[in-house]
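Put briefly, the fold is written as integer tokens. One such record reads:
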Amino acid sequence: QVQLVESGGGLVQAGGSLRLSCAASGSIFSINAMGWYRQAPGKQRELVSDITSGGSTNYADSVKGRFTISRDNAKNTVYLQMNSLKSEDTAVYYCNANVKTAGFGAVWRYYWGKGTLVTVSS
């Protein structure tokens, strides 16, 4: 099994910064893409940013220039540096990873963390 554990959420004023972390653990053979999604109250979950194992990144238009994704492959950890936060960034942020587990016959599948709440006050 694979577990993704997020940390770093909290309450911050508009214009402030937060850094989210997500560590993957368990029976991991390899990790391809890792990413962050968010879900605001009453809205669908949306992609915020993702990053491949080679470091290629992708961002939602709404966060370009404000958020930066990075990863430490040795630690199976992905980060999201969030600057210039706005009230509309308020959401539960979920980590996602495309993982191949160790063992004979293992396949690639996506795993999700339980989420961390980010609240931006205006």
